[in-house]
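Reopening this ticket.

The earlier resolution said the output was attached, but the attachment link was broken on my side. Pasting everything inline this time so it's all in one place.
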Amino acid sequence: MPISIGIASAVTWLTPGLSAAAGARLAEASTRYSFNRTGMELLYLPLPVELKNRTKAFIDVFADRFSRGIGGVLLLVLTVTFKVTPRGIALLAVVLSLAWIALSDRARRQYIATVRKRLEIRRLDLETARVSVRDPALLRLLEETARGGNSRQSAYAVSMLAEAEGYPLEPLLEDLSRSPSAEVRARVFDVARARGFGGALEQALAEIRSARPPGVSPAVQPAVSYALAVSPEPASLAARLLDHPNPGVIEAALGAMPAATAEELVTREWLAGACQSPDSERRRLAAVAVGVRGDEGIEALHGLLKDPDRRVAAAACRAAGRLGNRAYMDAVAKHLADARLRSAAIEALAAFGPRVVGALGDVLEDESVAIAIRQHVPRALRLIRDQRSVDVLLRAIAQRDLTVRSAALRALNRLRESAPGLDYGSAALPGHMEDEARRCFELKALLTPFRDASDRRTAVGLLAGTLEERLVRSLERLFRLLGLRYPPKEIYATYLAVQRRRDQELSTALDFLDGIVDRDVKRYLMPLLDSSDQGRRGHELFGIGEKDAVAALRELIRSGDPWLAACAVAAAAELGLRGLIPEIREARGAGAEVRLVAERAMAALA
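Inline output:
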């Protein structure tokens, strides 16, 4: 564009006239939306999507129009104030075009350098590009990177070239299938399988033959999947792979073969031998095989779910989720209590889908079930994006156990982010918000007599720290409830501002809440966050009066919370409050957690 405008302006300077001026205007208008627009779109390519959108909007809306305005003002000043002739204007355009050419060349170099840097960190995304990538310089750069010595960059460049429209990738794939890098070979096999290219089959079979226990190359699994996809005799190849000495090859073959082939090749005799094998790796492969072929006519998975080896039990959980047989749900749910198997159990329960939401809700609401299981059920429900999951979790936020309640609220917040179209019970939320706000005011009243206890090594300091932590968690639950009814991102930012307590941020957050929340919620929310006289407001709103140390400890001992009761008993003994002896004597029957503390407190007060 600057070359064409510069030439047209030079002609105008040499032979001024209407025709020359019209030619210069035509050169500008014809290149603005062809060469210039295409070049600008290419310059945005290496940028991240968010930065690309912001930069493009700024240039298109502000910079382009602002520069036109500056050009008009400059033209007016030159012609009216300095009396510059049309030939002088043309000469100035030639000078500016030369500067434009120099800057364009610099932009080209920076463009290639930026693409190279994005390749190095594997952050170039051609899929979100606004134009088709056919630039020869970019394609040459990708080819050089693919054939380079850096494995990560080479594998990434192969992926980028696979997305370039019309690029003949097959010769490069055949060459790189012999690469010394396992990461590059793995990517080549993946791309070749997606394209249906069979030219790398021999290299894939060689990769499989070279796999020997105990280790396995990262290229083996892609090689197995590719070989089974393009082999002219996939069933025969799959049968041979099932007898491979490397368990990694067997697992890859099981994952790549169709269910019909697996049912034919994985016989009951093979499964029985694998399930009863003393080798845990063989038992794990048996669980994988059941997940692929199905469980019709066999009972192997029940035993594998109880296997003492963690890897076997985890594979059995995933197989149960893949099969979707509800007969395994209870056994999988029990693994939620084991931190080593929890991730596999959650994944499996989510794979069952909406059919098990009711059963998971029963587990969540059954107080006879161990809390170690119940508190992790919401993590599975949040992955099942169904209205039934929301309904179960909404019931769970009324549970007495604070751990379950907090877990349910976190799951609901995640669900609202991933499935905003579901109904999150906006009509019932104000009641839950009011209950949580009442809890905040109660904790503030109980904390007031002990707020000055700064030494956490004392019983009183431990009690104060516990109450402060409970207050923070209660306030967090209140804001999570707000996030189910009002814009979640804005509510989260407001919560952070409230936690930091910086004057300007807090003032802005309170103004935002004052403008967005409903009046019935604002009635108790704003005094909780902003009122300097919270004791009086707590009494006006909920009848919660101010308490001295004796009244606060008496209420905490009778609260039914074992940890708070134990802390309160120890604090009463430390403060020598003999008037609380009847409550402490009564607390000895509250459970083993409190009994020992109460007996020692009685001895100290005696």
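Reporter confirms the inline version is readable. The radius of gyration is 35 Å. The longest helix spans residues 86-120.
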